[in-house]
Structures are given as C-alpha cells and as structure tokens.
Amino acid sequence: MSKYSKNTPTEKKTTSSKKATAKNTTASSKTTKKSAAGKKPAAKKSTTKSATKKTVSKKAATKPATKTTAKKTVTKKVAPKKVVKKKKVVGKSEVDGPLEKYLQAGEISIKVKDLLRKKVKVGASVLELCEAGEAKIAELGGKWAFPLNVSINNIAAHYSAPPEDDLVIKTGDIVKIDCGVHIDGYIADTAFTVSFGTDHGDLIKASEEATKAAIDMIRPGIFTDRIGEEIESIIRSYDYRPIRDLNGHQLEQNLLHGPVTIPNVSGTKGIKLEEGQAFAIETFASSGTGSIHPDEGRCFIFHLVPFQIGLRLDASRKARKVILAKYQDFPFTTRWIAKEITFPTTKVALRDLSNKGQIKRYPALCDVK
Q: Distance (Å, rounded) from C-alpha 235 to C-alpha 229?
C-alpha cells in the first residue's frame, strides 16, 4: 500500500518479513507475514529500503414382477429394495474450524507469492502486479483481506497502485510485496522482499532471520516483550534498525488487527500469549531512522467506519453503497471502487467520505529517503 520512491545513492532502505501463526495445544500453524515495514490498513513494512517479510435420502419403489405362461400365471413377490441414505456434501468452509481455515488461507497466499516472485522484475508495472496477485487470490477461492501492497525503497508499507498508476520497478529498487488472504474471515497476512540492487542482502537477511526467530519463540505462555527483544537484537546485529512504529498483530475472524501486538523492539510492556490465538509476525529492518511517517499525498487504502451519517453528495452515496456491499469488514483500495463508479467519481467520493469521518485513511508509510 504505498507509492514508488526513486532510489538514490543516499536513499535509505527497509526490509520486511511477515508470518501469520495460529497456535493450538499440540499444533501450530504458521502463515508467513510481512517483513518490510509495518501495516495494512495496518502498517507493515519498513521505511527505508526494505527487505522481505518474512495460514438425502431416496427410496426406490419396486413393483411386483409378474411372469406369465400359456398354462398359468405365476406372480413372484420381490423384496423391497433397501433404502440408502446419501450423505449430504458439505463444503470445507462449513465444516473446518479456525485452524484449518487459517491454513487454507495460508496455502493460497503461498501460491500467490510464488506467482508474484516470477512476475516482479525490473520494468514490471506495480499496477499489474497488484491486479495479478488479487486475481490469483480470487481464482484460488480466497478473498482479499486487504489490497495487495507493492512498497518500494523507503516506503515500508501501504502502497497499493491507484487506477492508471504508471509506477514501474527500476534497477536498484528494493521491493516489498504484502499479501492478505482470508477464508470465512480467517486471515493469512504475509509478505516478502526482493532486491534489484547489489547491497541489500544483509538487509533482507536481518528481517527474515528476525521473523524466523519470532516464529520459533511464539507459543502459549510467552510474553510479547521477550519476542520484541529478540527481533531487535537480530536486526541490530546486522547494523540496521527495527522500525519501532510497526508491529506484528493478533488476527481474529474478520479483524485484521486484533488487540494484542508483537513489538519489533525491546522495552515494551509484555503481554502473555494464550492458546488458540493467531498472530501475524511483522519484522521491519531499515537502513534509515527506524521510524515512519505517513505520506498523505499517497493514500490509496481505506477502511469503512462502523457508524453512518447522511451524505449530500451523490458520488459519496454511490461509493458507500459499494463499500457496504463488498468491503464492509476489510480494507479496500481506490482502484476497486473506481471499477464500480469511475475513477473521477471515486476520487470525489473518497475525499468527501474521509472528511466526514466515514472512512479511515491508510497512507503510505515512509522512512527517510
């Protein structure tokens, strides 16, 4: 969810790595999540150059059969056929529990990332990457948990291409791709980073190793401050800074950002994790300040707020009707609404809805260039 920033020799870079983890007494499910700079409609990636983030029945009636000859007629009794009840076929989403749904969402996100790893290259259109990833999610039977993000260089998170976006990937860029999938509201939030420069290897490693360490640590009974300490320690061992403003977060049904967060730094108040919770681990390594700021000029992701007020503009009423019908629970992007009511109308509507407090804005999150 962010816009391209041209890479210059002095520009800072961020990396991000994400994984979503569902925990049970004897089983744990992991779904890779962001590793560049913090989130989605909740921030997720790091803001200088970033390096990857690393779940009838039927009766058969029979008539008596009759046999006849010239001499006599014999009637045979035929035993009624046994009634066999057919099992009702129930879709997976109706019978599986939360853990299975997290895993289904995770499997889809893995396939989407595999597709995008092949497509992301120098000269690739950010708009085409966003649309290809979102189309693949739908093709595989999932739904969008948030717009696909392609955040470049010092943009840590929240860049999803607007309509008519002409941004392309260039030599030297470090690109964070952030993907969110849900099955019946159970979310896999995951990301990866790809570098098209020659000096980003350790930046990517810092986030990936921090994510893996956090995944290995997370279990019922552990406190979040211990995880944050380990994440920061690993990232700083590579001489980078963790982005302190971005956190991992709890995942709940139809709720992308639950109440419990996983810090990327030490010194926070610890919260004890419990069995049955699911989390997105989002580590962000940055060569910049380790702090982000919103770029209000590049805001293409929004979320509907619960309450409604009267609207005077016809464009705003049309846009809200689309949002209520299709995107009530999860974040949406300008591009999706523009496909329903045209781009010019969408721009007017989203500005008005934002000014009236009907939608929450999620601008691109950036570290220093």
A: 10
Same domain, 310 and 327: yes
Q: Is residue 275 part of a domain?
A: yes
Q: Which domain holds residue 250?
A: 14-55+92-294
End of a domain among 273, 294, 315? 294
What's the pTM value of the predicted model, to 2 decimals? 0.77
What's CA 80's distance to the chain center, in Å?
A: 57
Closest to 208 measured CA to CA, from 365, 29, 50 = 50
DSSP classification of residue 192: E
Q: Is the dihedral of CA 325, 326, 327, 330 positive or negative?
A: positive
Residues 6+ away with beta carbon under 8 Å from 280 = 18, 19, 20, 21, 31, 33, 34, 44, 187, 189, 190, 248, 249, 251
How far apart are the C-alpha atoms of 26 and 353, rounded to whole Å? 46
pLDDT tens digit sequence for 15-59: 666 654 444 433 333 333 444 334 444 334 433 444 444 433 333
Does one domain contain both 122 and 180? yes
CB 134 within 8 A of CB 126: no
- Are 286 and 14 in contact by the 8 Å Cβ rule? The answer is yes
